[in-house]
Amino acid sequence: MRSDSTYRAGVRVLMTGGGTGGHVYPAIAIADAIRELRPEARIAFAGSRNRMEWEAVPRAGYPIHEVSVQGLSRSLSAANLRLPFVLVKGFNQARRVVEGTGAQVVVGTGGYVALPVLLAAWSLKTAILIQEQNAYLGLTNRIGARFADRIHVAFSEAAEALAPRPCQVSGNPVRKELKGVSARGREAAREKLGMTGMRRVVFVFGGSLGSSALNRAMQRALPSLMADPDLGILWQTGPSRHDGVRAALTSGDLMPGLNAAPDRIRIVPYVDDMAAAYAAADLVVARSGALTCSELLVTGRPSLLVPSPNVTADHQQKNARSMERLGAAEVLPESALEESFSGSMLHLLGNQVALDTMSRAALAAARPRAAQTIAMDVVSMAEGET
What is the pTM of this model? Predict the structure, then answer.
């Protein structure tokens, strides 16, 4: 049991992880769960000024401290010559942040910015917990795992790669509003999205920024998909790609008469209400980033996953194959999009048994309390409990 004096001192945690939503949003979810357990907890973030965490973290209600960071260019680049100096500067900034926040525990969720913070915490003998979202560990967490006190992973493949190092397969923290989506009314969600009366709805998205490859595949597939008068499509193009997709479709060059079916296809730059999008969908077609995979499991949505080949260590392929082994998804390589995209979608949409089987497998593998599990570990470390 913690002593009263320890409790009164309050839990102090420094979160670090950034660059992409896959690192930032799990960190925010863990911070929210810590605050639910200990409302008096003092939680701060360390991040990079020019990456998405600089806006996402304050929007979530947490302070953020700057740590300079630079990624390693995989090609010959003059920028790499600055890397040692940036690393030293970032490490010194990180030490000041760890000391200044009085952190009892530093939680790292990956990304370049987390590495100097984890190294600073290690040099100051501050407790460290890391959380890995992917089936394949990123570079920062591969290094951090060597000296972290606790390790949480989302996929069993990551745990196997770390053996014999002890770690816990706790899943990926996801946004609160997605929990319980599988039990929500499908028709109510479709009405909210303006897609009532559809017998089937497919939700297509390539991550928050969209995917050119998926957008092109959807443009080619539309005539086949729209031949089914009872099929509705919710298609997130990505903000920078939306105008181009819209222009190509409404010109009539790809599919004459598309404007005659405005209620059956919704083309949007970005989906704000992901809970409604998942709840409305019979099938989700998406990339296989770690956060997307975890959201599919928690919401129990059957999926057709198209891994991006343009990511470090091909980790999206590993995530997708893990989902496939669970029975929660089918995988379609990007190289097969032109030949098999529409056929794969239509085959799944016409097979209710397969959809139901994938949905059950997803829910069985989901860990909807991942954030709470990790938060409890952080709090126990901060309060000195075993």
Answer: 0.83
Do the bridges between strand 265-268 and strand 303-305 make them parallel or antiparallel, or are there none, so unpaired?
unpaired
What pLDDT, in 10s, does the model give residues 46-56? 999 988 899 99
Q: Which amino acid is at 196?
A: T
Q: In whole angstroms, how far apart are CA 75 and each of 78, 143, 311?
A: 10, 22, 15
Q: Going by DSSP bridges, is the β-strand pair 64-66/105-108 parallel, antiparallel, or unpaired?
A: unpaired
For residues 91-126, one letter each, b for 16 or more C-beta atoms within 10 angstroms of the residue's C-beta and e for the rest, the string is bebbbebbeebebbbbbbbbbbbbbbbbbbbbeeeb
The structural domains of the chain, with segments of one domain joined by +, span: 4-174+369-382, 177-365
Task: Please name the helix (run of DSSP H) or strand (run of DSSP E) that holds residue 219, with its range, or none.
Answer: helix 212-226
At the topology level, CATH places domain 4-174+369-382 in Rossmann fold (3.40.50)
Instruction: Name residues whose C-beta falls within 8 Å of residue 287's C-beta, 6 or more positions apart in sequence.
Output: 205, 206, 207, 211, 214, 305, 306, 307, 308, 316
The reply to whether 4-174+369-382 and 177-365 are identical in fold is yes
Q: Give the mean pLDDT of the chain.
A: 89
Specify the CATH number of the domain 177-365.
3.40.50.2000
Taking each helix axis as running N to C, give the angle between helix 21-37 and helix 290-299, from 0 to 180 degrees, rounded to the nearest 10. 50
In angstroms, the CA 381 to CA 111 distance is 23
Two tokens, residue 89: 């500067």
Q: Helix 290-299 and helix 352-365: axis angle, to 10°?
A: 110
Contact 64, 58 (CB under 8 A): yes
Residue 336 corresponds to which amino acid? A
Element (H, E) at 200: strand 200-205
CA dist 280 and 288 (Å) reads 20
Q: Mean pLDDT over residues 108-129, rounded?
A: 96
pLDDT digits (tens, 9 = 90+) for 87-113: 889 899 999 999 999 999 999 999 989
- Residue 360 is classified by DSSP as H
What whole-number distance in Å separates Cα of residue 252 and Cα of residue 24?
A: 40
